[in-house]
Amino acid sequence: MAKKGLDTTTIIERFRSVTENPQGYAKSLQEKGKLVAGYLCTHVPEEILYAGGLVPVRILSSHESQAMTRSYIHETYCSFSHDCAYQGLSHKYDFLNLIVTSSSCIHMGEAFNVWVRFAGFEGKSFLIPFPHIIETKPAASFMEKSYGEFKQFIEKLTKKHITDDDIEKSIKVYNHTRRLLKQLWEFLRRENPPITGPDVSTVTLASQFMDKQECNELLEQLIKKLEAAPGKGKPGVRLMVSGGACDDMGIFNLIEELDYSASLIFVDSCTATRYFWFEVPESRPDKLMAIAEGYISRIPCPSKDNVPGTGEKKRFRFVQQFIEDFKPDGVVFLYQRFCSPQPMDIVALRPILDKLGVPSTDLELDTTVPVTQFRTQLEAFLETMKEEVPLG
Prior knowledge:
- The strands form two sheets. The chain has a four-stranded parallel beta sheet, sandwiched between helices.
- Strand 5 (237-243), helix 10 and strand 6 form a beta-alpha-beta unit.
- It contains 14 helices and eight strands.
- Helix content is 47%, strand content 12%.
């Protein structure tokens, strides 16, 4: 349970400590007698795990350059999937009661297979079938059936029957987290926000590791403090980041440490706003269908994003809306090396940005961040904007 009356800095540092040592945080949950489930993809319905008495903890990368996984995953799979596989092979999470994922992209699916086949999780793992294209009529019923099988598996694992009340309570807890996180990001719409983009990103990342009860208590305190807090100075060039999984907070800090004054004001990724920018319908008689409809309504991953018959990308509507709401001066596309769906989206998004008059640049992620290269590229990008936006 979170302590009451903490100041803003202390609350943010608590969140930061979780992102810096997620294994230690997860172990602390077990020491309190809780079951802990690791998950590899945000398509996993955490509500079902939580209703079954397990605390979901997201498995992310450690950004350590290593070659161990090359014997298990093809070299042309993204570095993020290699690093997530490494978390299993290095036995940092042997204490987990369960590892679970959904059938999202091929790369992360293979990372899950490494955990199951080579990291000792064969008897405590579950793969949730997930439709390849979610904007279809059969998708919800398909997901409802998948979630029903998953629920039965959790009941067998925990020897506990999951009631509709359990699921409804879980849905409400998670929706509360989503609303609080959305409130937190809304501060960055201000011309002079009371919190920085990197700090908001850190809090959002920490929420993916934390017991939502503790997380919500800290978020409530933080938002209350920020509502009365002064701004942190003029933001300079407002930059939005859009792309794939990015759990290296050093990149976001770099944006605000350039020679020119710049501020991170929005992050469209599955480790940031795509994680929570949706809600699951509450008080519905069919709980699993409610969860299915909620997850269909979320901002889709590029690997799942196609509207049948039109070829339209649903995610593009959200990106355009975010640009209109948060008013960035420029967009930084951030994608994993060897991830095909992300750069393909960039090609299609650029004409949309051109119509909106928003310039962009792109950065390719690998296991570690090439700070000097990224700094040079970002500062050159800002140089090109100096006629339209005053540079500090």
